[in-house]
Design a protein that fits this description.
CATH superfamily of the largest domain: Nucleotide cyclase, GGDEF domain
Helix content: 40-55%
Shape: rod-shaped
Order of helices and strands: EHEHEHEHEHHEHHEEHEEHEHEE
């Protein structure tokens, strides 16, 4: 409600209008007037008063009909209407109240009664406006809350899908907008790491299921920790074998270096695990292959069962290098070696004639990481 409140006085008697306007203005109200029912409807529409004083007996459209029409077209806002009628016209009072009037005054209008009725009706309007505003605000909050809940549910569903493929760190970055939807097929240059437990097939055939499960549990736990630590993406693991790649779904700095550092850390950890395995009589060892190149990456599969996969010759090269590697050996491609020359001590291997590749492949064995200069 505006300050000062606006009051519409509608009466066909100019003297009555003048008196009411003078009294209301003295009480601090902004007063607008109308001389008949039709004008009252027009002024009410244009001036949007906070309260209306409406004479019953007016030409063109009487006050009761004006009241009825105003209440019919009234929106969520509330405009109190006070009927002004002759003291003897009880039927007018009843008809006016039934038409929607909120209060009445009898002629001649007493100044004190006028002030009291107007203040009372404006208080009611203020309360009504407050309640209406609060209801609208609650409705907006509910709409916002519903939207946020919907967004959060969608994010949780997306997060649930993504965490099947990526580390929590990468899944969080994707949901937060750090990457486009990675499940859609896309092309990117990646560094691919294949690792394999040598001797696992024979070990699984000769050992009890509990022993196999114990070995795989320790192996997956240690390798998984190192994958997350170096921000790699686990494409798949098949028992004893794993494929990890770097630079997707979120680009990372120095993906080749991350791949080689992770491989070196894995080899160091497998040496510790391998010593315990050999103590138990398990003949298990470890080999790795690392390559760099472009691949098409995205979700493959069918409804209810999908995998996140990288497809391209780079994955084949890393796999073949892993298969070619001897126990405890890490073989890297020429492109990986060119990117990490300052990081690793290597021995050239080959050229190798790898299955699926027409030309011999130059590869390097990672002997160790170079010590950083002080």
């Amino acid at each position: 409600m505006r300050t000062p409140p606006r009051v519409l006085v509608a009466d066909d008697n100019p003297a009555n209008v003048r008196i009411l306007k003078m009294r209301l203005a003295a009480d601090g109200y902004d007063v607008v007037t109308a001389g008949d029912g039709a004008e009252a409807l027009a002024v009410a529409r244009d001036a949007q008063p906070d309260l209306i004083l409406l004479d019953v007996m007016m030409p063109k459209v009487d006050g009761i009909e004006v009241c009825r029409r105003l209440k019919k077209i009234q929106d969520a806002s509330f405009t109190p209407i006070i009927l002004v009628t002759a003291m003897t016209d009880a039927k007018d009072i009843v008809a006016g109240l039934e038409a929607g009037a909120d209060e009445y005054l009898t002629k001649p209008v007493d100044h004190a009664a006028l002030s009291a009725r107007v203040r009372s009706m404006l208080r009611i309007k203020a309360l009504h406006d407050t309640v209406t505003a609060q209801a609208e605000e609650i409705a907006r909050w509910n709409t916002t809350l519903e939207r946020r809940v919907t967004e959060q549910v969608r994010e949780l569903e997306q997060m649930s899908r993504l965490k099947r493929f990526f580390s929590p760190h990468l899944a969080d970055a994707i949901v937060a907008g750090g990457a486009a939807d990675p499940l859609r097929p896309h092309r990117r240059e990646i560094s691919v790491v294949f690792l394999d437990l040598r001797g696992f097939t024979a070990f699984a055939e000769m050992s009890e299921p509990e022993e196999v499960s114990d070995v795989l549990g320790a192996y997956h736990a240690e390798m998984g920790r190192l994958i997350l630590e170096h921000e790699g993406t686990l494409e798949r693991f098949t028992g004893d074998g794993m494929m990890i790649f770097f630079n997707d779904p979120v680009p990372v700095a120095n993906p080749e270096e991350r791949a080689v550092r992770m491989a070196s850390a894995m080899r160091a950890r497998i040496r510790v695990l391998g010593a315990e395995w050999r103590r138990r009589g398990y003949d298990l060892d470890f080999s790795m292959g690392i390559a760099k190149g472009y691949a098409t990456i995205g979700a493959i599969g069918f409804e209810g069962r999908q995998d996140y996969a990288a497809i391209g010759s780079v994955t084949n090269l890393a796999s073949r290098l892993c298969a070619e590697a001897s126990p405890d050996q890490i073989l890297i491609s020429q492109r990986i070696h060119a990117a990490v020359t300052d990081l690793v001590k290597v021995k050239e291997v080959g050229p190798l004639q790898l299955k699926g590749f027409h030309r011999p492949i130059v590869a390097y064995e990672v002997v160790d990481l170079k010590e950083r200069s002080p």
